[in-house]
Design brief:
The complex is a heterodimer of chains A (about 400) and B (about 270).
Chain A: H1 2-22, H2 24-50, H3 57-80, H4 107-131, H5 139-159, E1 167-170, H6 171-174, E2 186-195, E3 202-208, H7 214-217, H8 236-255, H9 257-267, H10 269-274, H11 279-302, H12 316-329, H13 334-350, H14 358-372, H15 387-395, H16 400-406
Antiparallel strand pairs in A: 1-2, 2-3
Chain B: E1 9-20, E2 23-34, E3 38-42, H1 49-56, E4 64-69, E5 72-73, H2 79-85, E6 87-89, H3 102-110, H4 118-123, H5 126-145, H6 161-174, E7 179-183, H7 191-208, E8 211-215, H8 219-225, E9 228-233, E10 236-241, H9 243-247, H10 250-257, H11 264-271
Parallel strand pairs in B: 3-8, 3-9, 6-7, 7-8
Antiparallel strand pairs in B: 1-2, 1-4, 4-5, 9-10
Helix pairs in contact in B: 3-5, 3-6, 5-6
Classes of the chains: A mainly alpha (about 400), B alpha/beta (about 270).
C-alpha cells in the first residue's frame, strides 16, 4: 500500500503546495493533464494490454461523468438544499470563506467520492456490455462497434430533454393550490412543455425536484444544452489521487499473472487460448476495468470548473484524443501513456501564442513522432526497461529480473 | 501404472471426423496413448495431421467421435478448458508471445494452474505473492532445463529459431500437461540441431513424465524416438505400429512415394 500512500501525499502536495504557487491557468493545465493521464492509462488496459482496439472510450468518460454529476447535483440538492460545493481544503474551497473552521475534507467531498465511485461502476457496467461483442469481433470490426457505442451514448444524452433542467420557479407557479410558507420564494422545479388535450395549446407545467421520483432524475440532465450547474469539487488533489490509483492498478495488473494473460491475448490469441488462457473472460474483464477508471475520470471531468459536460464529451473526437495518447506512448506502455498524456495536453496549449498554425504544428508533431517512433514513444516497454536505465541499474549491482519487480509502484 | 506392467490410457480418441465443406479433412481417426508413450503421427503434406491436433486441442470441434483425456470427455470443450484438463501443444509455425520476455512466455503457461484472484493480485495478498513467486521459480527451472536461463529477459521474438522451438515446448510444459502434442518440432532445423532435439524430447519425457504425440516430417527422428507410429493420408489412418513395421508397410510407402513397383522405393524409405 506504500505506493498509494505516496500517491496520496503527492496529490496533497499538488493541491496545497504546487497549485497556490503556479497560478490559475497553469493549475488548470496540470489538472487537465491529470485527467488525461487517467484516461490514457485506463484505455491502455484495453488497447494496450489485450490489443482490442476500442474507439469508444469517451463514451465511458461521458457516462461516468453524467452518473457522477447526477449524484452530486441531485444529492447536493437533497442534502443541503443547494448546489454549492460543500468540500474542504483538499477540494479547493477558497480559504477566504472560513479559513478557521474549514476542514481538510468536507462533507461534500464524501458525496463527491461516492459520485466518482458510482460513475465508475455505471461505466464498468457499460464496459461489460461493450466487452461482450469483443468476443466475436476483432480488429477493425470491433473498432467500428466501439465507435458506434460512443455515438449511441452521445445521441442518447442529446435526446434527454433540455427544457427539463430545474429552475427556481415561484411557489405559486409550482403549487397553485397550496399557501406559500413564510420565507419561501421559489422552488427548484422542472419545466414540462405539454399540450393541453382540451385546448390543443401548448403550456408549461412545473414539477418540483423534491416531488420528482428518483428514476425520473436520470432524464433530467440537460439534453443538448449540456449538464450545467454541477458542483465543482474537482481539484488537483482529487485528480492526482485518481491518476495515482489508476496507474497503480494498471501496474499491478500488468505485473500479475492476469496481466500476462491480457498481454498474451494481444500477442497471439490462438496461442493464449491453447495455453489455457480464458480469452473470452479476460477480454471482457479488460473492458470492465478500463471502463471503470474512465468513468471515474469522467466524474472528475464533470466536476471541473469551467467544463461544460455535454453530449459532445462522448463524441469520437474525444475518443480519438485518448487513442492518440495511447498509440503515441506505445501500445501497452503505462509510462508511455502517461508521458503522451502530458505531451498531447500541453502541446496545443503551448502553441496558443500562434493560433493560426496551432493545429498544423500539432498534427505535424504527431506525424513526425509516429514516423520516427512507429511503435510509439516507448514501444511496448516501460521507461525503465530502456537500455539507459538498465545500464544504470546494472552498475548499481541489482539483477535485472529482480529490479523489474522491485520498481513497481 | 498397474502391477502387471500395463499402463493406463491417458488419451483415447475414438473415430473422430471433421469435414470442411466437401473436404473430409479427418475421417474416423482413432488413437490411444498410454501413460509414458511417445507416439509419432506422420503422413504426407496435407494428410490432416495438424487438423488432428486442432481437433484434440479444441481449435476445431469434431463432427463426430469422442476424445477422452484421463477418462474425462473433452471433445467440444474450448482450447483453454482442454489445456486445463491436461493437454498442451506447440505450433507448426511458431506462435510465441513475441513482444514479451522469454520468462513471461513460460510464466504465462503456469497461469492455467493459478488460484489467485484478480483482487488478490491487485492487493498483492500474501497468497498471490507466494503463488507468483512459485510461478516464477517454476518458469526459471523450465528455462534452465532448456538451457535458456541466460535469455530470460530477452524478447521472445529475438531468440534464434531453434531456441524459439525450445521455448514453445517449455511454455507448453509450464501448463503441467499430461499429454504434450508437438507439431513438427524439427522443422527448419539442421541435422546437428535435430540430434540435439531428439535427445531433448527424450529428456523431456523422462524428466516430466509426460505422454507425447509427435507430428514430424523428419523420418529419421520419428523412427528413432517413437515407440509406435500412426500414419494418416487424406484424413484416413493407413497404418499403425512400431517403426520397423511402418517402414515396410506397402501402404505407407505408396502414400509417401507413389508407385509401389519402382525398385528404389523401399530402400528410399528405409534410408530416410
Amino acid at each position: 500500500m506504500l505506493p498509494l500512500l505516496i500517491g496520496l501525499v503527492f496529490a496533497a502536495v499538488m493541491q496545497l503546495v504546487v497549485k497556490p504557487n503556479i497560478g490559475d491557468y497553469p493549475a488548470k493545465l496540470v489538472l487537465d493533464i491529470g485527467i488525461a493521464i487517467s484516461l490514457a492509462v485506463s484505455l491502455t488496459m484495453v488497447n494496450g494490454f489485450t490489443g482490442q482496439f476500442s474507439m469508444g472510450h469517451a463514451g465511458f468518460l461521458a457516462v461516468g461523468g453524467y452518473a457522477a454529476g447526477i449524484v452530486t447535483y441531485y444529492g447536493s440538492q437533497r442534502i443541503w438544499g443547494d448546489r454549492a460545493t460543500h468540500g474542504g481544503i483538499l477540494s479547493g474551497r477558497p480559504l477566504a470563506i472560513d479559513p478557521a473552521t474549514l476542514p481538510l475534507v468536507g462533507h461534500g467531498d464524501w458525496l463527491f467520492l461516492a459520485a466518482l465511485v458510482v460513475g465508475g461502476l455505471v461505466a464498468a457496467l457499460l464496459g461489460f456490455l461493450v466487452g461482450l461483442p469483443s468476443l466475436r469481433l476483432k480488429g477493425d470490426y470491433l473498432a467500428i462497434v466501439t465507435l458506434g457505442f460512443g455515438e449511441i451514448v452521445r445521441v442518447m444524452i442529446q435526446q434527454t430533454n433540455a427544457t427539463l433542467k430545474p429552475q427556481d420557479i415561484a411557489w405559486e407557479e409550482v403549487y397553485p393550490a397550496l399557501p406559500r410558507p413564510a420565507g419561501v420564494e421559489a422552488v427548484a422545479s422542472y419545466a414540462f412543455d405539454v399540450i393541453d388535450p382540451a385546448t390543443k395549446l401548448g403550456r408549461t407545467v412545473y414539477q418540483a425536484v423534491s416531488d420528482t421520483p428518483a428514476w425520473d432524475v436520470l432524464t433530467h440532465v440537460g439534453g443538448s444544452l449540456g449538464f450545467t450547474g454541477i458542483p465543482k469539487y474537482t481539484s488537483l488533489f482529487w485528480v492526482y489521487i485518481v491518476a495515482s490509483i489508476t496507474i497503480f492498478a494498471a501496474f499491478r495488473l500488468k505485473q500479475s499473472t492476469f496481466g500476462r494473460a491480457f498481454l498474451s491475448i494481444r500477442e497471439d490469441e490462438v496461442a493464449a487460448e491453447a495455453m489455457g488462457v480464458n480469452t473470452t473472460r479476460y477480454k471482457v474483464w479488460a473492458f470492465v476495468i478500463s471502463a471503470f477508471f474512465a468513468g471515474v475520470a469522467g466524474g472528475l471531468f464533470a466536476h471541473t470548473l469551467g467544463v461544460g459536460l455535454s453530449a459532445e464529451t462522448a463524441g469520437f473526437l474525444k475518443s480519438f484524443d485518448i487513442i492518440i495518447m495511447v498509440v503515441l506512448g506505445g501500445l501497452g506502455s503505462i509510462s508511455g501513456a502517461v508521458i503522451a498524456a502530458v505531451v498531447v495536453t500541453v502541446l496545443p496549449e503551448a502553441l496558443r501564442d500562434i493560433p493560426q498554425y496551432r493545429l498544423i504544428i500539432y498534427a505535424l508533431a504527431l506525424i513526425l513522432i509516429m514516423i520516427f517512433r512507429p511503435k510509439g514513444l516507448l514501444g511496448t516497454h516501460e521507461i525503465w526497461d530502456r537500455a539507459v536505465w538498465k545500464r544504470v541499474r546494472r552498475r548499481g549491482g541489482s539483477e535485472p529480473g529482480k529490479a523489474k519487480g522491485g520498481s513497481s509502484p | 501404472m498397474t502391477s502387471s506392467g500395463r499402463r493406463s490410457d491417458v488419451l483415447r480418441v475414438q473415430s473422430i471426423s471433421k469435414s470442411f465443406g466437401g473436404l473430409k479433412a479427418v475421417q474416423d481417426f482413432s488413437l490411444t496413448l498410454c501413460e509414458g508413450d511417445l507416439k509419432g503421427l506422420i503422413g504426407p503434406n496435407g494428410a490432416g495431421k495438424t487438423t488432428v491436433f486442432n481437433l484434440l486441442t479444441g481449435v476445431y470441434k469434431p463432427d463426430s467421435g469422442a476424445i477422452s483425456l484421463s477418462d474425462a470427455e473433452v471433445a467440444g470443450l474450448r482450447p483453454n478448458q482442454i489445456c486445463r484438463q491436461g493437454m498442451a501443444r506447440t505450433f507448426q509455425n511458431i506462435r510465441l508471445f513475441g513482444e514479451l520476455p522469454v520468462l513471461d512466455n513460460v510464466r504465462l503457461g503456469t497461469h492455467v494452474r493459478a488460484h489467485q484472484t484478480l483482487l488478490g493480485a491487485a492487493m498483492r495478498s500474501p497468497f498471490s505473492v507466494g503463488e507468483e513467486r512459485a510461478m516464477t521459480a517454476r518458469a526459471r527451472d523450465l528455462l534452465a532445463f532448456f538451457g535458456l536461463e541466460g535469455r530470460a529477459e530477452e524478447q521472445a521474438r529475438n531468440l534464434p529459431y531453434g531456441d524459439q522451438r525450445k521455448l514453445e515446448i517449455a511454455r507448453a510444459l509450464a501448463t503441467s500437461p499430461k499429454v504434450l502434442l508437438l507439431d513438427e518440432p524439427a522443422a527448419g532445423m539442421n541435422s546437428g540441431e535435430k540430434v540435439a532435439l531428439r535427445d531433448l524430447i527424450r529428456r523431456v519425457q523422462t524428466t516430466f513424465g509426460v505422454t507425447i504425440l509427435l507430428i514430424e516430417h523428419d523420418m529419421g527422428l520419428v523412427m528413432d524416438i517413437c515407440q509406435r507410429i500412426t500414419v494418416i493420408d487424406y484424413g484416413v489412418t493407413i497404418a499403425e505400429g512400431p517403426p520397423e513395421a511402418i517402414q515396410n508397410d506397402p501402404k505407407v510407402i505408396e502414400a509417401y512415394l507413389g508407385a509401389p513397383d519402382e525398385p528404389s522405393v523401399e530402400q528410399g524409405v528405409a534410408r530416410a
